[in-house]
Amino acid sequence: MSSPFQFAGPARFMHQKRGLHSLIQTKGVGALLFDPGLGKTAVVLDYAGLLALKAVSGEARVPVVCPLAAVDTWVLQAETFGTPMVDWWAESLGGGLRRRAEALASRGGHPYAKALTPERPRAHAARALHWEQAWAFWSNRDVLGAAGPDALSRPRVLLEVVNLDSFSSRRQVGRSSTMADIMLDAVRRFDPDLLVIDESHRIKSAMGNASRLLGRIGKNVRRRIILTGTVMPHSPLDVYGQWRFLDPLAFGELQRDGSRKPATLGGFRARYAIQGGWMGKQVIGYQNLDKMQAIMAKNSVVARKADALDLPPTTEVVIPVTLSSAEKRAYEEMKGQLAVQLQSGALATVPNRLAQMMRLRQITAGHLPDDNGVVNVIGDSKAQTIRSLVHDTLAGETRVVVFGLFTIEMEALRTTLAREGTEVLVIQGSTSQEDRRLIRKRFGSDEATRIVLVAQVRTMSLAVNELITANHAIFASQSQMRDDFEQAKARLDRQGQTKPVTFWLALAPKTVDDVIYKSHRDRSDLETAVLQHIQGNG
Fold it and tell me: What stretches of 74-121 adopt beta strand conformation (E)?
């Protein structure tokens, strides 16, 4: 008799259990249409663990395609939610597109003939789990394969996380291939047991490069899962590109023999859009939406925050930020030597540990003042990650708050988050009282415009009630004062809030970001924690 499945991490909510049950019932072809922050990742990791336990080979290979903000989050959450009944190898693939393709192919056991040998997993120790077992497996793959599955010590999941942009390039490579061809071949060589697209609304555009390529790839993978909280960000026609990957036959025409042809974009539009206007080609309305929803419901589960009655009032989600090489170098130099040689040639030094902590926080935010008082921008890793979070994960939210600390950080967020269809408003120390009042009034109104408010923590942490129109807040940097953090959170989690609130924390792993957050969470002494970090003990 088999052992009952062991969940890892926090207990699963009812909507997560429904999601897992649905994936099992649909044999791994399903959509989890959950609001942001409702734990879609945990459900997929549970399902991947079940696949490994049931696999004759003892292995489940799972590539995850997702936007930038989620790349390292998948690896981090595999450590939290991955069942202890299997071994986990989870890594985010970086480097150039060709290198990502080679790495993906090599992990699946069918590498390119002249590819580099798989890197020893120790090189990925910060992003990978159970690397010793995984390396032992790869090093002896031929021996183990000859000996049969009984030679494998434990079932394993190989989780390879790839940025969605990897599938967008059509760059020519050689005489007859494009990067799309190479990525398609890499996935085939990896030979997935399950392919996951996170924030699948990113492939809604049926003519987009990534949407078309992933539609082709999906035809060769038995199990396919899409995850999104915003399945129709613009119109019901957004469904086609996502279902082309998930279940291309679902919306196809029924044949006389009872089978279906793969759906086409033209047929989908003809069935669900009302066309008119110039040349009769403009969409002027929609029809048969009840039938569309009935088809979607066959292999999807919907979860909304307002309906998830067992949710706690607030949830904190850590979003890992991978610093650029320039940011990492500056951080390590400031941490170890109390001085950084900037690209401009200027020096940035500190006289004591207190000033050092401030400089380390500024570096993770992408900038550093030199000894002449000139602020040098050294990267935008955190701003880009938050951009992906706002416009990918939270694409369906009409109100989002982003809390920042530093003036230059506020400006970087303002410019990075700006895009058509989203208005970015900023409140910081220099904002006049009248402008603050007008901005707060607009944010608190029922105006249809999508508004992202970039707010300086201390400026907006007290005596503000209008932020309850949002139920998602992102913290770009951590204040060293715990009260600032708690008061900022209380701007959303207060009387008048009608939904559970999610706080997203953009943290660069193994930096002062982590140290401050954990100190606030554990109510430990911050100065001691930072000193231990600087000395290499934390």
Answer: 87-92
* Phi/psi of residue 506, nearest 5 degrees: -85, 105
Helix, strand or coil for residue 450?
Answer: coil
pTM of the model: 0.86
Q: How does DSSP assign 189-209, residue by residue?
A: HH--S-EEEESGGGG--TTSH
Render the burial of 26-36: b for 16+ CB within 10 Å, e for the rest: bebbbbbbbbb
Report the DSSP pairing between strands 273-276 and 282-286.
antiparallel
Confidence band of 114 (pLDDT split at 50, 70, 90): low
Range of the domain at 116: 14-235+300-307
Strands 399-404 and 451-456: parallel
Q: Give 260's contacts (C-beta < 8 A, 6+ positions apart).
A: 249, 250, 252, 253, 254
How many CB atoms within 10 Å of residue 311?
Answer: 22
Closest CA to 375 of 367, 383, 386, 387: 367
DSSP 422: B
Judge whether 380 and 416 are in contact, CB under 8 Å.
yes
150, 69: one domain: yes
Whether residue 469 lies inside any domain: the answer is yes
pLDDT digits (tens, 9 = 90+) for 21-53: 999 999 999 999 999 989 999 999 999 999 999
Per residue in 402-434, pLDDT tens? 999 999 999 999 999 999 999 999 999 999 989
Domain count, the chain: 3
Residue 47 and residue 101 in one domain: yes
Contacts of residue 363, Cβ cutoff 8 Å, sequence gap at least 6 = 327, 330, 331, 334, 340, 378
Please report which residue ranges of 108-202 form alpha helices under DSSP H: 131-139, 141-147, 179-190
Say whether both 93 and 56 belong to one domain: yes
Cα–Cα distance for residue pair 476/410, rounded to 1 Å? 9
Regarding whether 155 and 268 lie in a shared domain, the answer is no
| Residues 6 or more apart in contact with residue 320 via CB below 8 angstroms | 72, 73, 75, 76, 507, 508, 509
Q: Where in 405-464 does DSSP place strands (E)? A: 423-427, 451-456
DSSP state of 220: T
How many C-alpha atoms does 423 have within 13 Å on its Cβ side? 11
Examine the domain organization and report whether 156 and 230 are in the same domain.
yes
| Alpha-carbon span 411 to 238, nearest angstrom | 33
Q: Which of 20, 152, 12, 16 is nearest to 87 (CA)?
A: 152
Cβ neighbours of residue 463 closer than 8 Å, sequence gap 6 or more: none
Residues 387 and 517 occupy one common structural domain: yes
SS3 call for 162: strand
Q: What are residue 36's phi and psi, to 5 degrees? A: -55, 140
Q: Is residue 158 part of a domain?
A: yes
Contact 403, 491 (CB under 8 A): no
Residue 460 buriedness (CB in 10 A; 0-12 / 13-18 / 19+): buried
- Tell which residue, 370, 380, 302, has the closest CA to residue 333: 370
